Amino acid sequence: MLAERRHQIILRALRSGGTASVADLAEQLDSSAATIRRDLLKLEADGLLIRVHGGAVIDEERAPFNDAAEVLVAEKDAIAAQAATMIEDGQSIILDSGTTVHRLALQLHSRRLTVITNNLAVYDELIGDENIDLMLLGGMVIRESRMLDGFMAEDNLRQVHADWLFMGACGLRPGGQVMDTTVAEVPARRAMIAAGDKVVLLADKSKFPGTGMVKICGPEDLDALITNASEDDATCMALREAGVKVIPTAPATVGG
Prior knowledge:
Blueprint: H1 3-17, E1 19-21, H2 22-29, H3 33-45, E2 50-52, E3 55-57, H4 65-68, H5 73-84, E4 92-95, H6 99-106, E5 113-117, H7 120-126, E6 132-136, E7 140-142, E8 147-149, H8 151-158, E9 162-167, E10 171-172, E11 178-180, H9 186-195, E12 196-202, E13 214-217, E14 224-227, H10 234-241, E15 245-248
Parallel strand pairs: 4-5, 4-9, 5-6, 9-12, 12-14, 14-15
Antiparallel strand pairs: 1-3, 2-3, 7-8, 10-11, 11-13
Helix pairs in contact: 2-3, 5-6, 6-7, 8-9
Protein name: DeoR/GlpR family DNA-binding transcription regulator
GO molecular function: DNA binding; DNA-binding transcription factor activity
Keywords: DNA-binding, Transcription, Transcription regulation
């Protein structure tokens, strides 16, 4: 069977079930597990699925926070560790509702910082740290996304200013546009951009191109991107040409 045909069948299986194991796909396609793993690597590189232990998942819409938080943890931690090195004690930062941004919060314990966030997982992580001044934005509770959102969050953001915004995204278009899947969340994210001196996007390679139908911002609104995507990726190249600093992370290692 041609690779293109296998890829179509794999994506169809994931869209119908959300997840599939290598063993199940190998049996369905009458192919070896090694062939299926190569197929999944290619499809992940194209941003069409996310590999997980033993198989793959597909995200036609944004996954609930707790599910997304369990995917690509080592990659997110590497991105978060790099982001933490950019922050100086005494600074103020905005952390948005993404799961990679939550991993950054884990790197901030005992730092003397002001953290502004609508991310309830960030709030839970930092509420007990007396070194950190923590501001929780108001708004409606979106339980599946573990966030606060709506006009109250926007209003709060108009009253604050921060040295940094660290934000995530559902996807990046080849031209460098940052995309979201949920229209209602975009105004608060744009308000965060307006409130931050410098804007840093945290995005693992699965977000190239990722998903999203609504534009949050363009390359002109970004100061830096931290990613484990290849430096030769077309989107990374477009961002560099637009003046965005593209900061690579070291590849994740097993057990590291």
